[in-house]
Amino acid sequence: MDFGRLIAAMVTPFDANLQIDWDQTGKLIDYLIEEQANDSLVICGTTGESPTLTEEEKLQLFAFAVKHANGRCKIIAGTGSNDTAHSIHLSREAEKLGVDALLLVAPYYNRPSQEGLYQHYKAVAEAVTIPCILYNVPGRTGININVDTTIRLSHIPNIVATKDCADLDQLTQIVNGAAEGFRVYSGEDNMTLPVLSIGAYGIVSVASHVIGKDMKNMINCYLQGNVREAAQIHAKLHPIFKGLFECPHRVPNPTAVKHALNVKGMQVGGLRLPLMNVTEEEGLFIASLFE
């Protein structure tokens, strides 16, 4: 199954009472596919505020996205957690709803061993028949899925890719050592062009909510051999890549991108506690990125 080169980790739109805004969710899905050129969507990942979504809300979002996308892009469900049994349960339920694949974050907080990570992922993958994508984000989980563990997991038939936020050294080793057909995606927007150069397949992106069409153009230029033009686009987009994550006080994702969407007229609402909306200073900075 091809998930494409550009995958958006979709925010979850909320109404004034911080409940899921279904009308805006539909509009956002259309916008990400049609206007921002995303090939696939991750539903209920970190950017979707998964820690504060109930299981019922997650299942409703998976079902809604599958129905609304209607085959126009692949729908990837964020079903990972730090409880293997619950990850299996939610993954099975998501599979029943027709999602195309699962994104499985490394078990956070309890910080298992590398063997524990392997057994966790193996158990989830064997419990479903759809493709599974590893998600390595040490800055949030407190644990790194090491190169050897990722390569070992790549040989499990339905573990088909990784979204990895590690450095180029780790990604290079995975690209060169993983099973044939295993695809490596970066989870860092500013690494989109660099990771393509070492053989990674694409990006699972936050910035593609607002500059997805430009990112797709950059990717296509590189793949077509127009490296200089790709580099020029990267240079143009780099302040936005950095700004969405470093705006003045390093606000946690998805704070900045939700504000950016609201500024651009795609109303996605606020954030559930413990995340906070941007300050006036932060809001002005984010708006300035698009002037």
Automatic annotation (TrEMBL):
CDD domains given in the database record: DHDPS
Active-site residues (renumbered): Y135 (proton donor/acceptor), K163 (schiff-base intermediate with substrate)
Keywords annotated in UniProt: Amino-acid biosynthesis, Cytoplasm, Diaminopimelate biosynthesis, Lyase, Lysine biosynthesis, Schiff base
Summary of the function given for this chain in its UniProt record: Catalyzes the condensation of (S)-aspartate-beta-semialdehyde [(S)-ASA] and pyruvate to 4-hydroxy-tetrahydrodipicolinate (HTPA).
SUPFAM superfamilies (alphabetical): Aldolase (SSF51569)
A GO MF label: 4-hydroxy-tetrahydrodipicolinate synthase activity
EC number: 4.3.3.7
Protein name per Swiss-Prot or TrEMBL: 4-hydroxy-tetrahydrodipicolinate synthase
Reactions catalysed: L-aspartate 4-semialdehyde + pyruvate = (2S,4S)-4-hydroxy-2,3,4,5-tetrahydrodipicolinate + H2O + H(+)
Localization per record: Cytoplasm
Assembly with partners or alone: Homotetramer; dimer of dimers.
InterPro entries (alphabetical): Aldolase_TIM, DapA, DapA-like, Schiff_base-form_aldolases_CS
Presence of keyword Transmembrane helix: no
PROSITE patterns in alphabetical order: DHDPS_1 (PS00665)
NCBIfam families: dapA (TIGR00674)
Protein's pathway: Amino-acid biosynthesis; L-lysine biosynthesis via DAP pathway; (S)-tetrahydrodipicolinate from L-aspartate: step 3/4
Species annotation: Paenibacillus radicis
Family to which this protein belongs: Belongs to the DapA family.
Site entry (Part of a proton relay during catalysis), positions: T46, Y109
Signal sequence bounds: none
